[in-house]
TrEMBL record:
InterPro entries tied to this protein: Dipep/tripep_permease, MFS_trans_sf, MFS_Transporters, POT_fam
Cellular compartments annotated: Cell membrane
Protein name (Swiss-Prot/TrEMBL): Peptide transporter
Taxonomy, superkingdom: Bacteria
Principal subcellular localisation of the protein: membrane
GO cellular component, one term: plasma membrane
Membrane topology: Multi-pass membrane protein
The keyword Cell wall biogenesis/degradation is annotated on this UniProt entry: no
Keyword Cell membrane attached: yes
GO biological process, one term: peptide transport
Keyword list, A-Z: Cell membrane, Membrane, Peptide transport, Protein transport, Transmembrane, Transmembrane helix, Transport
Length: 510
């Protein structure tokens, strides 16, 4: 074994391998670019790309949903290609380069460039996001108790990026113009890549993240080396995805595909195929595996409902902030996108300490109860926005405190579900299906954006008036939020009621 292969011999920082901190900063900057851009995306489509359309809210909701669905679905393919061919390091470089090009193309104000830029970010994220997350896990030996806290530190990095970026990109966009905001997102992504490259130079990753074997990149398919073919195909897929994104109009006005665009139809197909495959695997499995697999699918389903409401933050809630929240002297609508991450940074450590404290007293709730409570928190958070209309001023603007409280509650819900669920997936999936189940877990975010799109279209306001808002839009949003609150509270209550049964199915898994 050479010196470089042994991570445990290397310098530790706060008891963690130093490689973790390179991944922490690389992911921090990647999420900086991702969330800086996301903060501007809906408002940019409304104000620039679709500004001439009366149904610009509808078009924006549709494109936002397709983008979100594809940006998370691509991670399944990116993860697979990394396992089989590229290895995590190459995948992270390829993904990061494509994402930064995407952000810089977004700085060009042109409709076709816009769709192409989103596609480059979709493909890039597919290579970057799953692989940097798995990379963290490989820095620890199997069963190392430090791994969970390593992931908590990593989750903090994600949210530091998600907190700072909307503030800076939002400020740049408002002060100097949209393309400065998008440009800064691109610079953020490049910074992430430089950090990762420095880590490799300093040899902090040992032998982790290399391709599965020495020959795989050289192996030829269709006469081209795989190491070249994958990046070439990745780049070539971008214009095709751009075409999908730009066909945001509904396929039919009535019948089966009413109100659906081509991306919605593709996702219906993927959903059916994934469920059919899971049913087949459950049929093949033994009774213990079958129960655990069933619980993994249930938890993923609950997570999809939660993200479906949570991910409204970049679309309907940003619009609500722009049109109906009194932000005077506080922040811009784009900047409100930083609030979720801010609360995650404040709450992540106290909540994880709370679980440890409750565990010591034997009171730590089992996973399904945490999920039920998480959905209840989401419900209450939307209830807060729903009743905010009662405090509207003469211009139909509600106090900022409602939005702050809403994000606080939603972030508590997120911490009851997202990190807990991620670690349960690794416990519940049979070894042979672990990568697939992780893929399905990421797909929960992809499907969630289909819910986001559906709600966004329902709450679309028809107008080309730049200053649409006030009482004209207030009740559309608050009525919508009330309905969401009821669904989330209902879902949470059902999960809590079913928890004793789910708990039994989980056996020893906590
Ligand atoms: N906020 C987390 C991240 O950016 C999770 C987002 C999601 O899966 N929808 O990684």
């Amino acid at each position: 074994m050479t010196e470089s292969t042994n991570i445990s011999d290397q310098k530790q920082i706060f008891g963690h391998p130093q490689g973790l901190f390179y991944l922490f900063f690389a992911e921090l900057w990647e999420r900086f670019s991702f969330y800086g851009m996301r903060a501007l995306l809906t408002l940019y489509m409304i104000d620039v790309i679709f500004q001439a359309l009366a149904e610009r809210d509808y078009a924006t909701a549709a494109v936002y949903a397709s983008y979100g669905s594809l940006v998370y679905a691509s991670t399944v393919i990116g993860g697979k290609l990394s396992d089989k061919i590229l290895g995590m390091r190459n995948s992270i470089f390829l993904g990061g380069i494509l994402m930064s090009i995407g952000h810089f193309v977004l700085a060009i104000e042109d409709n076709m460039a816009f769709f192409l830029a989103l596609s480059l970010i979709i493909v890039g994220n597919g290579f970057f996001k799953p692989n940097i997350s798995t990379f963290v896990g490989t820095l620890y030996e199997k069963g190392d108790p430090k791994k969970d806290s390593g992931f908590t530190i990593f989750y903090m990095g994600i949210n530091i990026g998600g907190w700072v970026a909307p503030l800076l990109c939002g400020w740049l966009a408002a002060t100097y113009g949209w393309h400065y905001g998008f440009g800064l997102a691109g610079i953020g992504m490049l910074t992430g890549l430089i950090v990762f490259w420095r880590g490799i130079q300093k040899n902090v990753f040992g032998d982790r993240g290399l391709p599965p074997n020495e020959h795989v990149l050289e192996k030829k398919v269709l006469g081209i080396k795989q190491g070249i073919l994958v990046p070439v195909l990745a780049v070539l897929s971008a214009p095709l995805i751009a075409l999908l994104l730009s066909s945001y109009k509904a396929i039919a006005t009535d019948g089966m595909f009413a109100d659906q665009n081509i991306v919605n139809v593709i996702f219906t197909g993927i959903g059916i195929a994934v469920l059919a495959y899971l049913a087949f695997e459950m049929y093949k499995a033994n009774s213990k595996e079958r129960k655990e697999l069933f619980v993994a699918v249930l938890l993923t389903f609950f997570m999809t409902i939660f993200w479906g409401f949570h991910e409204l933050s970049g679309s309907v809630i940003t619009l609500f902030a722009a049109r109906n929240i009194d932000l005077e002297g506080i922040m811009s609508a784009a900047q409100t996108n930083s609030l979720n991450s801010m609360f995650i940074i404040i709450l992540a450590i106290p909540i994880s300490m709370m679980w440890t404290w409750l565990s010591k007293k034997n009171w730590n709730p089992r996973t399904p109860y945490k999920f039920g409570l998480g959905l209840l928190f989401a419900g209450i958070s939307f209830y807060v926005l729903a009743i905010s209309g009662g405090s509207a001023n003469d211009s139909g603007l509600v106090p900022f405190a409602y939005l702050l409280l809403m994000y606080f509650l939603l972030s508590v819900g997120e911490l009851f579900m997202s990190p807990v669920g991620l670690s349960k997936m690794t416990d519940l999936a049979p070894m042979r299906l672990i990568a697939f189940i992780m893929g399905v877990w990421f797909l929960s975010s992809a499907f969630a954006f289909q819910i986001v799109g559906f709600i966004g279209k329902q709450l679309a306001i028809e107008s080309t008036d730049k200053n649409v808002g006030g009482f004209e839009t207030l009740t559309v949003y608050t009525d919508g939020f009330m309905l969401i609150a009821k669904y989330a509270l209902g879902a949470g209550a059902l999960v809590l009621l079913a928890s004793p049964i789910i708990k039994k199915l989980m056996g020893k898994v906590h």
